[in-house]
Each structure stands twice: as C-alpha cells, then as structure tokens.
Design a protein that fits this description.
Layout lengths: L1 H19 L6 H12 L6 E6 L1 H4 L13 E10 L16 E4 L1 H9 L3 E3 L4 H7 L6 H6 L4 E9 L2 E10 L8 H38 L10 E8 L9 E8 L5 E8 L4 H18 L5 H15 L5 E9 L4 E7 L5 E3 L5 E3 L4 E2 L12 E4 L5 E5 L11 H13 L5 H12 L8 E8 L7 E5 L6 H15 L6 H19 L2 E8 L2 E8 L19 H8 L2 E7 L2 E9 L9
Parallel strand pairs: 11-14
Antiparallel strand pairs: 1-2, 1-6, 2-3, 4-5, 5-6, 7-17, 8-9, 9-10, 10-11, 11-15, 12-13, 12-16, 16-17, 18-19, 19-20, 20-22, 21-22
Helix pairs in contact: 1-2, 1-7, 2-7, 7-8, 8-9, 10-11, 12-13, 13-14
Amino acid sequence: MDEAWAAQQRLSLLNEASNRIGTTLDLHRTARELVEVVIPRFADFVTVDLREAVLSGEEPGAVPAEGPVLMRAVAVGDTGPDGGMLGAADQVGETSQSAGLYAQSLRTRRSILVSEVTEEELSRIVASPDRVQPSLDAGVHSYLMVPLVARGQVLGGAEFVRSRNPVPFGSADRSLAEELAARTALAIDNGRLYRRERDTALTLQRSLLPQEVHRTLGLDLAYRYLPSSVVSEVGGDWFDVVPLSSGRVALIVGDVMGHGIRAAATMGQLRTAARTLITLDLDPERVLYRLDEATAGIGEGQFATCVCVVYDPVDRQCTAASAGHLPPVVADTEGRAHLVELPTGAPLGVGGVAFESAEFTLPEEGILTLYTDGLVERRGQDLDEGLQLLCRTVADRRGSLEQTCDAVLKRLTETTGEDDIAVIMAQVRPKGADRIATLRLTGDHAMVAHSRRFTRETLASWGLDALIDWAELLTSELITNALVHAGSPTQLRLYCNRVLTVEVADQESEVPRIRRARSEDEGGRGIHLVNELAHRWGSRRTKDGKVVWFELELPPGATPSA
C-alpha cells in the first residue's frame, strides 16, 4: 500500500512539473520552478547550478577531464524556516569549484545516489571541507546529484538533499529526479539558445544604428533607441540623421515588420539604402519608391514602414513622405501639438503603390517628433490614446530637448512594451541671420554682374575674404549656365555653416552633367570648372525646377563675423 501511494505521489509530482517547469525562456526562473516543484514533497534542500557559459548564452563545451568545475548557483530551496542548510551550500549568485561526486556526475553524465550519507561521503559531496559540519548539523542523511544535460551539452547540475524527511532516496526517486532534470535542462537550453539569438540580434542591430547623429546649426536633436522587453525578440526599428547640402538635414525613422536576426539584418540593409538614396538629393517620395523596390528585392514577405523628412533651416520648411508609418508630431511654444497629416503610402515591400511628398513649416523653436509604433501602441489600448498622449507630452515640454525626450519616454513607457522604440526629436533654434543671404534674380542682362557683386559683398560682410575670388568665379559660372540652359535663374542663395554653400535655382528640371568640351567649343566648361574648384557640388530637383549648388571649405579658424 505504501509503495503504491509513493508511486502515485511521484506521478503527481511529475505531472505538476510538466505544467510548471519551463513556462518562460528565463534560465533563472526555470531553475526556480524546479526548486518550487520538488520542495518539500521530494526533497528538503535543493540547489540548481549552471556553468558560466550557459548564463551568457554560449555553448558550454566539454566538461574538463579532471579538476574542479566552475559553477554558479542560480536557484536554492530549503524547507527549514531558519535556513538550516545555511553555510552548507552556495547561495544564489555564488560561484564554486565543484569537485568530488558533483564533478564526477558532470563528467560521466550519470546521476549519483547516496541513500545513506556518512561523514566520509559528505567530504566527497560538499564543495569544501568547512561545509561538512554544517551539513551534519542540518541532519543531511540522503543525497541525489543529477546532471542537467540537453542536446548533448552538460549545462549544470541539480542536487537533492533530505534532512527532515526520514525516508532515504531510492531507485524510484532517482528515476524521478532524472526525469525532472531532463525536462528542466531542455527548458534551460531553450532559454540559452533564445538568449544567444537575441544577444546576436541586439549586437547586430546596435552596430547598424548610428552611434552619433549629425548636428546642424538651427536644429537641436535628441534621439533614443530602446530594445523590446524580454517578452519578445529584438525588432527592426531604426533611425538616421543625414546631412545634406545647404545645411539641410534628413530625418528618417523606420520599422521592419518581424523580429530576430532577419529583421535586424533587413533593417541594416534598408538604413544603408536610405542613407545612400537621400545623399543623392532625391526627394522623400523618390527615396521611398526606391526603398520599396529594395525591400522587395531583399526577400519575399519582408515589409517595413518608414517616414522620411528633409528639413531646410533657411525657411524652416519640411518635405516629408510616409510609407505606412505613424504621423510626425509638431509642437509649438504655446503648449500646442498636432499630428502632421501626410499622404498615406503602403508599407515598403508591398510594391506598385505611389508615394507622395507633402510640405509643412515648423514654428519658431518648434519641435518635430518622429517615432516607431512601440512608443504609442500598447495591448488593450486604442492607438489614438497613445498618439494623443504623445502630443500632450511633447506640448508640455519643460527644460532642454533632452529632458523633453526623457519625459516622453518615461510617460509613454510606464507600462512595459513588447516592441522596440526609436524616437528622434528635432527642435528649431535661431539660425543666425548673418549666415544666410538670398538674392531674387529678375532675368535682366546685368544679372551676372549683379550676382558677382552680391556674392563679393556678402562674403566680405561675413569676414570670408579668402573665399571671395573663388566664390565669385563659380557663382558666375552657375548663373551663366542657368541663363544658357534654363532661360533664367530665379534665385541666388549663400549659406554658411561648416562650409560655404552657394545655390542657384531655376525653372528647368534637367540637371547639369559634366562633359568634356572640345577645343573649338566656345562654352561648355562651366560645370567642369565647378567640379574642379569646388569642395563639392551637386543638384537637386524641386517642385518648380531645380537647384544647382557648390560648397567651398572655410579657411582654418574662419567663422562669419557677427
């Protein structure tokens, strides 16, 4: 009768273990679940130790053929109200050099049963001689050591001790302990593999995200990236800040659908493609069109949302396009904030859907916020609630932009999210009127001379006399080129930031190209001259035509005079 009852108890314990052990991918929690299942019904004292490599997600490798084995205690349980085994075993977090029967069990991958523990056998069970007496004082009389083995790897070990329960462990108990250990080991190894993949994806993702963003006059920037909670895997959120000609800057935020290494790798490819495309001075809608093609080429079933904003500090003008992304938020200094309505494009990777840019102006000292859905989406909460909370929080800005960014994250992440979060906040700052000069061009015959004089006088007033000759020459070349090929230029603009930029706008959309002039040609050398003498040059299409620009590096120590 007693034997039948004991067998029933063992079966009941095994059934409970099936339901309670391995409920998560957390290694420590799985170890604690084993302890909670077996105490006090099976043992009076239990320790679960793991090898150091397992805790970091790595392959533990073979157990050393001789000598002690370094282990770390991850779960300890004791039925004694006064911690009867205190001093006889490691506490959670402690490491020890396991030798004797423990190390023997790890090497042979076989459990060891000591039904009747003597003082001599205790010396082979405990990790150090000073633990023999505390074990005797605690009444240790029966011992079971079972290695934790999964997928051919020895992960650690579990020790079961009886001190208050007078019944020694038997062969049936040994079989039960081996079954419990096998289930625990498999769950722990699943957690190890999950952690390794997650850490790999996080490392990949962080290496692909910008470590430092471009700073520009007239625009303060704050940005944050927060990985997802442990409940879900790493996602494919990304952001970027790309400097463009004439002091303009592109702000990009995107979110690859899915999780894991594949999402992180896709994110890296799209971020690189977006940065490359935007530096070609393509407008946001054309950038998204090309990104859509790139996403489809990465692999079937790959999708991403993205918003691309190009900011011009001269007139605080933003040109933006969205590929299924959440709308930007703009806040002014009067405590008001609103969502920017952009033409809704399909997510990247869908294909066959046109994208459309829209323009809006940032208010003086206004804040533009771009973000991914992890900031505003919560399970059981309407999306509009999250968006309105974001607007209220940005509108209620206090202190610096960095402090405002921290306040946004604190308020909107009070409940743990299951997705990554990427956010960029950009605040308009006074750009300094002395750094920008604009001349409207009327199309008269004195235009070239007038433009040269305007350039010369402007640079002299900025204290950049060393650049006057080169800038005057190249400006006249751009004006002349526009007269010949576009009928009439419409505007000349000089902008000084880290470099001097000169822009000429006209109403012809065809962009200039370098060609080698023949010896008998009377013209055709203007753009070639710009290419040879300027630090950089380029062109970009606009809704009214195009802009051709060149840059000259500032002389060492030179800054525009106040």
